[in-house]
Design a protein that fits this description.
Alpha-Beta Plaits; four-stranded antiparallel β-sheet; 25 helices
C-alpha cells in the first residue's frame, strides 16, 4: 500500500497542473449539477416498521386531507379579559376566515364550535389544516401563514403561530465560520507558515466543496433531511483539514531531512497517506454502518457524511501533493528554508517527547486517574433520556417557541402534543362502530386529558380521534400514556376488518427511540467489529485494536455524561445558549457513537502508525512509543483543536439538534485526543511492551500485509538507489 501511494504522490507532484485543473473541472461540474438538480431538504422523520408510521401511511392513502401539515394559531386576550365578548368573537371569526383562505390551506376550525377556548375564556386555538406535508410547504405559504392575524393584533389580542407549519430548516451562517477562522489560526501557529496554513485550508475547502456539491446534486432523487447537509459539512471540513495537516506535516519533516520536494511528497503520501487512507476508511465504515438501523433519514445522514469524508481522503491523496508541488519549501517557516535541512531546529525534541516520557514514567497512576476521572464524568449518562424535539425546545423568541409557551400557558403542556388514534375499517359502518369502541376503551386512562370525537374521511372508512394528554411531548408520563393507549385498543385492532393505530409527532419520537435502542447492540457489533478487524490488518496486532476500542468506550461514556449534564439536566446550560433543558434528540446517541468512533480511530491511526513504523525499523517498544507520541503530538493537538473549533462553531446555531450535536462532537474530540489517545495510549503501550505487537502466527499468515509503516517502501527505495547512482555515472 505504501509503495502504491508513494507512486501516486510522485505522479500527482509531477503532473500538478493537470491534477489541479481536473479537480477544478470536477468541482465546477459538481457545482453545476448541484445548481441544476438540487431538491428540497425534508424536516419529517419516517420510521418504517413502526405503528406510528403505519398510521401515517394509512392517512396519506385513505384520508389525505388529515395527513397534511397543521398550523395552530394561539390567541390570547389581555390579562383579566376574555375572548367570549361579541366584539372579540367577531375578531376571532375574521381570523378564522382569513386562515381558511391561505394558499394551500384546506380550512380552519372555529375555536368556539370546536371547544378550543380555555375555561377562563382568555385563550383560544385555531387549527388550520394544509394539504401538503410539513417538508413540502413552500416558504411563501409559511410566510403567508405567519402574517395572519394583523387585525386581531391591532384589536389588542396576542397572536402566535405554531404547529407543524413552523418547522424550519437549519441554515449555516456566520457563526459557524468562526470555527473555520480559529482552525486557520491553529494551522498558522502549528505550521509556522502562512503558505502551509493557507494551502492546507484551501485543500480542505476544495474537498468539502466538492463533497457538498455532489451531495446536493443527488438531492433531487434522494430525500435529504435538513440535518444531513449540516452534518456532512461539519465532518467533511473537520477531517479534510486534519488529513491535509497530517500529510503536510510529514512532508515538512521529509523536507527538513534534506529530501528533494518530489521525493518528500512521495514518501509523505506513502507513509502518512497510508494512515490517512485507513483512518478515513474507519470513519466511512462507522458512518455507513448507520444503515443497519433501517431508519431512512439516519441512513441518508450517515451516507452523506461518509461521502464527504471519502472525498476528503481522495483530495488529500491527490490534490494535496499537487499543491505541495507548487508550494515547495515555502511550506517551511523562513528560518528553516535552508538547504541543509534546518539544522538544530529540525533535531530539537518538542513537548510531545517530554510528555510521552512523563506519562510512561507514571503510567500506572496515570491510567488509574484517567479511568476514575472519565468514569465520574460518565455517571450522568445513566439518567439519559431521548426524544424527538418539539417546538417547546426551540430557542426563546422564535415564533414556534412563543406559540408553544402560549398554548402551555392557556391550556397546559398536553395541547402541544399531536397524538392521533387512526381507525380504519373495511366498511363505513364497521369504521364508525370501531371508532366508538376505541373512544369508550381509552376513557379513564391515566394522564389522558381528553379524546375528541372521531372525524371520518369522505368514504367513511377511516376515522381519526385526536388525543390530548395532560403532560408535554417529552414528559416520561406521555410515553407511558402512549403505551397504555396502544394496550387498551389492541383487542379492537385484532378484530376482523379493523385496524387501529396511534400516531403523531410524539408517538413517532417514542417509536424512533425504541427502534434505535433495539438497533444499538447490532450497530456497535458491526462498526466496532469491522473497525477492530481493519486495525488488526493495519497494525498486525491483536491488543492494539482492542485497546483502541476500549479507549473509545471511555470517550463515549464521558461525552454522553457531559452532554446529559448540560443539555438535559441544565447544569452550565447558559454557557452553550440552552435556555430550556430537554431530553437529547433520539438519534444523537447512535449518531454520536458512529462519528466519534471514526474520529477516535483517526487519532489512534495517526499516533500508533508512527509507533509501528519505528518499532518495525528497529526501535525498542518504549522508544517507539516515545517517538510515535513525540512526532504525532503536535499534529494530533492541532488536529484536535481544529476539529473542536469546527464542531464548536455549530454550538452557536439556534437549532437544538445541531447545537447538541456540535457540543457532543467537540467535547468528545477533546476527551479522546488529549485524555485517551495522548495519555492513555502511550501509558498502555509502554506497559504492554512487545506484547502490544503480538499476532498469532496462524493469523499473521491469513492477514494480508498492507505495509502502512512503509517497510517494503524502504526496501524498494534502497534497491532503487544504486540504480539511480549508476544512471548518473
Amino acid at each position: 500500500m505504501a509503495t502504491l501511494l508513494y507512486q501516486l504522490g510522485r505522479a500527482s507532484f509531477r503532473r500538478r497542473r493537470l491534477v489541479v485543473v481536473l479537480w477544478l473541472v470536477a468541482l465546477a461540474a459538481l457545482g453545476g449539477a448541484a445548481y441544476a438538480f438540487m431538491g428540497p431538504t425534508a424536516s419529517n422523520f419516517s420510521i418504517p416498521g413502526t405503528e406510528s408510521q403505519r398510521a401515517i401511511d394509512a392517512l396519506k392513502r385513505e384520508f389525505p386531507e388529515a395527513s397534511g401539515a397543521t398550523g395552530t394559531i394561539a390567541i390570547a386576550a389581555p390579562e383579566g379579559q376574555q375572548l367570549t365578548t361579541p366584539d372579540r368573537r367577531a375578531v376571532v371569526a375574521d381570523l378564522v376566515r382569513e386562515a381558511s383562505t391561505l394558499p394551500g390551506a384546506l380550512g380552519a376550525i372555529d375555536p368556539y364550535t370546536a371547544g378550543a377556548v380555555s375555561p377562563d375564556g382568555r385563550y383560544a386555538l385555531i387549527q388550520v389544516q394544509f394539504a401538503a406535508q410539513a417538508d413540502e410547504v413552500t416558504d411563501a405559504q409559511r410566510e403567508a401563514y405567519t402574517k395572519t392575524g394583523a387585525a386581531a393584533t391591532a384589536a389588542g389580542l396576542r397572536v402566535e403561530h405554531g404547529g407543524e407549519m413552523m418547522a424550519s430548516v437549519p441554515e449555516v451562517g456566520s457563526s459557524e465560520g468562526i470555527g473555520v477562522v480559529i482552525a486557520l489560526v491553529v494551522l498558522v501557529v502549528t505550521l509556522g507558515s502562512l503558505v502551509a496554513a493557507g494551502m492546507t485550508m484551501l485543500n480542505a475547502l476544495l474537498g468539502v466543496g466538492a463533497g457538498m456539491a455532489g451531495l446536493y446534486a443527488v438531492s433531487s432523487v434522494v430525500e435529504l433531511t435538513s440535518v444531513a447537509p449540516v452534518l456532512a459539512l461539519m465532518l467533511g471540513l473537520a477531517v479534510g483539514i486534519d488529513y491535509s495537516l497530517f500529510i503536510t506535516s510529514r512532508y515538512r519533516q521529509n523536507a527538513l531531512d534534506g529530501l528533494e520536494p518530489e521525493e518528500a511528497v512521495g514518501r509523505a503520501i506513502g507513509t502518512a497517506g497510508s494512515a490517512v487512507l485507513f483512518a478515513g476508511l474507519t470513519v466511512v465504515i462507522a458512518l455507513a454502518g448507520l444503515a443497519v438501523v433501517d431508519i431512512p433519514f439516519l441512513t441518508v445522514m450517515g451516507l452523506a457524511a461518509a461521502g464527504t469524508v471519502a472525498v476528503a481522503v481522495l483530495v488529500a491523496l491527490t490534490l494535496l501533493p499537487a499543491l505541495l508541488g507548487f508550494a515547495g519549501r515555502r511550506v517551511l517557516p523562513r528560518r528553516l528554508r535552508r538547504a541543509d535541512g534546518g539544522g538544530d531546529a529540525a533535531g530539537r525534541e518538542g513537548f510531545g517527547f517530554r510528555w510521552a516520557r512523563l506519562v510512561i514514567r507514571l503510567r500506572v497512576p496515570v491510567i488509574l486517574v484517567v479511568l476514575l476521572g472519565l468514569g465520574a464524568l460518565a455517571l450522568p449518562a445513566a439518567d439519559m433520556r431521548v426524544a424527538l424535539p418539539d417546538h417547546g425546545s426551540a430557542p426563546k423568541g422564535t415564533p414556534q417557541r412563543e406559540a408553544a409557551d402560549l398554548i402551555t400557558e392557556g391550556f397546559g403542556p398536553g395541547f402541544n402534543n399531536r397524538l392521533v388514534l387512526v381507525v380504519s375499517g373495511d366498511s363505513a359502518k364497521r369504521t364508525g362502530a370501531a371508532a366508538q369502541e376505541v373512544m369508550a376503551a381509552v376513557q379513564g386512562t391515566p394522564n389522558l386529558l381528553a379524546v375528541a370525537p372521531p372525524q371520518q374521511s369522505r368514504d367513511q372508512r377511516t376515522a381519526v380521534l385526536p388525543v390530548i394528554p395532560t403532560t408535554g411531548p417529552t414528559d416520561p408520563a406521555t410515553e407511558t400514556l402512549v403505551h397504555d393507549l396502544r394496550a387498551k385498543v389492541a383487542a379492537i385492532d385484532e378484530a376482523d376488518g379493523v385496524e387501529v393505530a396511534l400516531t403523531g409527532q410524539t408517538a413517532v419520537g417514542i417509536d424512533a427511540s425504541e427502534k434505535l435502542s433495539d438497533a444499538m447492540p447490532w450497530y456497535l457489533l458491526l462498526v466496532v467489529g469491522l473497525s477492530v478487524l481493519l486495525l488488526m490488518l493495519v497494525f498486525r496486532s491483536v491488543l492494539v485494536p482492542l485497546k483502541a476500542a476500549l479507549g473509545f468506550l471511555l470517550t463515549v461514556g464521558a461525552t454522553f455524561g457531559l452532554t446529559v449534564l448540560i443539555f438535559q439536566q441544565g447544569h452550565l446550560a447558559d454557557l452553550v445558549g440552552v435556555d430550556t433543558p430537554r431530553p437529547l434528540v433520539s438519534f444523537l446517541p447512535i449518531l454520536l457513537i458512529g462519528i466519534l468512533f471514526g474520529l477516535a480511530m483517526d487519532y489512534e491511526v495517526f499516533l500508533v502508525s508512527r509507533m509501528r513504523e519505528d518499532f518495525v525499523h528497529g526501535d525498542t517498544p518504549t522508544q517507539a512509543t516515545v517517538n510515535g507520541t513525540g512526532h504525532g503530538a503536535r499534529v494530533v493537538t492541532a488536529a484536535a483543536l481544529i476539529m473542536t473549533s469546527v464542531f464548536g462553531g455549530f454550538v452557536m446555531m439556534d437549532d437544538p439538534i445541531i447545537k447538541s450535536m456540535g457540543f457532543a462532537l467537540a467535547i468528545g474530540v477533546v476527551i479522546d485526543a488529549f485524555v485517551v489517545r495522548m495519555t492513555i495510549v502511550p501509558a498502555v503501550m509502554s506497559l504492554l511492551g512487545r506484547a502490544a505487537w503480538w499476532l498469532p502466527r496462524w493469523l499473521a499468515r491469513i492477514l494480508p500485509s498492507v505495509d502502512i509503516e512503509g517497510e517494503r517502501l524502504r526496501h524498494h527505495l534502497a534497491a532503487a538507489q544504486p540504480e539511480q547512482e549508476l544512471t548518473r555515472v
